[in-house]
Design goal:
The complex is a heterodimer of chains A (about 250) and B (about 180). Chain A is mainly α. Among the domains of chain A are: about 75-175, Arc Repressor Mutant, subunit A, CATH 1.10.10; about 175-250, Winged helix-like DNA-binding domain superfamily/Winged helix DNA-binding domain (Arc Repressor Mutant, subunit A). Chain A contains ten helices and six strands; from the N terminus they run H-H-H-H-H-E-H-H-E-E-H-E-H-H-E-E. In chain A, a hairpin with a 2-residue loop joins strand 2 and strand 3 (about 165-170). Chain B contains five helices and ten strands. Classes of the chains: A mainly alpha (about 250), B alpha+beta (about 180). Chain A: InterPro entries: ESCRT-2_cplx_Snf8 (IPR016689), Snf8/Vps36 (IPR040608), WH-like_DNA-bd_sf (IPR036388), WH_DNA-bd_sf (IPR036390). Chain A: It comes from Coffea arabica (Arabian coffee).
Chain lengths: ~250, ~180
């Protein structure tokens, strides 16, 4: 457009800007529309897929997990509500709800023993035992999903990572970094001694005793004064499996 | 699951810290509860009536994990049973403990049931027959501690359900039922 001097020229420049802006908006709208259409196609294909593979999704935990990932990529949450297409088609809303209830129950019934902290592995194992007759097998991934739904309900459930393991917390106890490090240390043999904590983590003596005492008070640790060498051991039920306590220890 | 003879031991029995008295109140409560239940169930299954604190009672130690209950712990758990009315110290020094996995009233009810089951309502039996006769074989009364039996019988006598009479020596004490 030829630049013209004076007021007329300015008005032309403004008009030009407006037109460019309109064009820009149209392009953006076009892009969004395209995307919406693609997404909608994607979704209906996902629905077809789900319909076809409904049984596999229900029966096979690994398949189920991959299906969830696919849904997440497309922005579909089959568990968002218990009603609607997904819940009805797959009935998996109920499945996770039921799982959530069982998980809460297990956490409550083991709380007196482990202080409200249980390893994901142990939780899944106990869940498996409880669901012996059920059609659907349960994986750790399923547990994590059910727990994340529980979290949304504000029930105080949370999954924390300690070393290589995941622990499920069902009480409001906050664990600080010191506590976490002790738990990680305890995973090797199920217990630690004050000496060991000091040595391995290079802590001054007060720090180790303080942390261990807190864990004791919170019900996450238990003392054991029965060892031959007379050193007090602090055991952590949450890192052991209830049904697999060792016979003779190997230290 | 580990066993003691035919008795199935609970999982906590293999977890070392349970053999040390826990200092934290909630943990201690849980610990005492578990031990109380274990002691009662074991005594019921093995028909143990008296536990000697300084003796080798099988539940007091677990060789597999090299742990034993301290004297203090033994006293703590048995005292809890005593508070529940499920046990009694037989001596002032708290060295022996009578375990009432059935309370005396429950034993009395069992005797009444036994009498009715066997059609002995108007019969006479010796005390010894009640605890070791052919009719009692297979019932919970078989092998019952004699002093416990006497207390249950006295309770029933007090209610007018029977009369205890002496024979020529203690072993001949008899009971006439009048249910």
């Amino acid at each position: 457009m030829r630049r013209r001097p004076g007021i007329g020229g300015l008005q032309n420049a403004a008009a030009a800007r407006d037109q460019y802006r309109l064009l820009g908006e149209n392009v953006a709208k076009l892009r969004t529309d395209l995307m919406k259409e693609q997404l909608s196609t994607f979704r209906s294909q996902l629905e077809d897929f789900a319909r076809k593979h409904k049984n596999d999704i229900r029966k096979n935990p690994a398949f189920r997990s991959q299906f969830h990932e696919m849904c997440a990529k497309v922005g579909v949450d089959p568990l968002a509500s218990n009603k609607g297409f997904w819940a009805e088609l797959l009935g998996i809303g109920d499945f996770y709800y039921e799982l959530g209830v069982q998980i809460v129950d297990i956490c409550l019934s083991t709380r007196a023993h482990n202080g409200g902290l249980i390893s994901l592995e142990e939780l899944c194992k106990l869940l498996g035992q409880r669901r012996k007759g059920a059609r659907e097998a349960v994986s750790e991934d399923d547990c994590l999903r059910a727990i994340s739904k529980l979290k949304v309900l504000g029930s105080g459930f949370e999954v924390i990572s300690v070393g290589k393991r995941k622990l499920v917390r069902s009480v409001p106890t906050e664990l600080n970094k010191d506590h976490n490090e002790i738990l990680e240390l305890a995973q090797a043999q199920g217990f630690v001694t004050v000496d060991e904590v000091q040595r391995r983590l290079s802590w001054p003596s007060g720090r180790a005793t303080d942390a261990l005492e807190t864990l004791l008070d919170e019900g996450l640790a238990m003392i054991d004064d029965g060892d031959k060498d007379g050193r007090r051991r602090y055991w952590f039920p949450c890192v052991s499996s209830i049904s697999s306590y060792a016979g003779a220890d190997t230290s | 699951m580990q066993k003691l003879g035919e008795f199935k031991l609970p999982h906590f029995f293999n977890y070392p810290p349970y053999f040390t008295l826990q200092p934290v109140r909630d943990t201690r409560e849980k610990q005492v509860q578990l031990w109380k239940e274990l002691i009662i169930e074991y005594c019921r299954a093995q028909k143990v009536f008296i536990i000697g604190l300084e003796e080798d009672f099988p539940l007091f130690s677990n060789r597999a994990i090299e742990r034993s209950l301290s004297h203090e712990a033994r006293v703590a758990f048995l005292s809890a049973l005593v508070s529940d009315g499920r046990a009694e110290w037989t001596d002032k020094g708290h060295k022996k403990c009578l375990i009432l996995w059935h309370r005396i009233q429950e034993w009395a009810d069992l005797i009444v049931h036994f009498v009715k089951e066997n059609g002995l309502e108007d019969n006479v039996m010796t005390v010894e027959e009640i605890r070791s006769g052919t009719e009692s074989r297979g019932t919970e009364l078989y092998g019952i501690d004699r002093s416990v039996l006497m207390r249950a019988l006295k309770l029933l006598e007090h209610k007018g359900k029977l009369v205890i009479f002496k024979g020529t020596s203690t072993d001949d004490e008899g009971v006439k039922f009048s249910l």
